[in-house]
Specification:
Strand order of the largest sheet: 3-2-1-7-8-9
Shape: globular
Strand content: 5-15%
Radius of gyration: 19 Å
Bound molecules: zinc ion
Number of helices: 11
């Protein structure tokens, strides 16, 4: 679908703001992966909207019974919590646009709420995954991350080869603190930034929600890419009302044209 006049005008405005900025970062959410066939968790058509939210005390239950957590995790029933579509999902033009912005030296880092690994697959290298990565496991004592293949899972729960701590999925559960290393890196990046592109997320959940505010409070600008108005729209300098897969490649072209 060709982009309409209003969207093209928003893209032009956004490109100018980006060109005038010295430290551009991005924040992405479920909307960026929808075009890769991954359903959002919340909102219309959301997986959890349909099936109900996972237990809010997930992390407390894990801490109480790590072995039980692992037995459940390895059972076929677990898949339903995250839905289907992950295995077949490939990065879409929105992911590749961010990769290109990084390669152009425009985008300094990318914070994502997505666990699907698609930004990495697309070739982005400065990715901060606030909610973890579905391909990794993490030690809850020392925080070190490992590819899942490191563990043979014959004894549950698996233990960290570095410190002996209990290992769980890197994916952050309800009630689990955001890993300190990622949280601090996000805050440092937001503190440096004078322009944040917020794509495919209404950014209402902490800590993602705080990042645009940190940028804005220092006089920076917020560019939103979201087909729908969001809670963040009121404080955005530009809102591009289109999907990220359509809008971001056009934005990259416009930035190249200005350069
Ligand atoms: Zn450890």
């Amino acid at each position: 679908m060709p982009l309409d006049e209003a969207v093209l005008s928003e893209i032009a405005d956004a490109a100018h703001l980006i060109k005038e900025s010295r430290y551009v970062i991005a924040l992405t959410g479920a909307g960026v992966s929808v075009e890769s066939g991954i359903r959002p968790f919340r909102g219309p058509g959301g997986l959890w909207t349909e099936r109900g939210e996972p237990p809010m005390d997930g992390y407390r239950r894990f801490e109480a019974d790590p072995k039980g957590y692992w037995e459940e995790r390895l059972s076929p029933a677990r898949r339903s919590m995250f839905g289907d579509g992950f295995e077949a999902a490939k990065p879409n033009p929105g992911h590749y646009a961010f990769t290109e912005l990084e390669a152009m030296g425009v985008l300094k880092s990318l914070v994502t709420q997505n666990i699907d690994n698609l930004h990495n697959e697309a070739g982005s290298t400065r990715v901060l995954e606030i909610h973890g990565n579905r391909h990794k496991l993490r030690c809850i004592r020392c925080g070190k991350r490992f590819p899942a293949s490191v563990f043979d899972l014959s004894t549950l729960p698996p233990r960290c080869p570095e410190c002996g701590g209990v290992v769980k999925d890197d994916i952050v559960m309800f009630g689990e603190p955001i890993p300190r290393d990622v949280l601090e890196a996000c805050q440092i990046e937001a503190g440096r930034s004078d322009c944040i592109i917020v794509a495919g997320t209404s950014a209402v959940v902490y800590p993602a929600a705080s990042l645009p505010l940190i940028v804005k409070e220092k006089g920076g600008v917020i560019i939103e890419v979201n087909p729908h108005e969001s809670e963040l729209s009121g404080i955005c300098d530009v809102s591009i009302r289109a999907s990220s897969g359509e809008a971001l490649p056009a934005l990259v072209e416009e930035i190249k044209r200005l350069a």
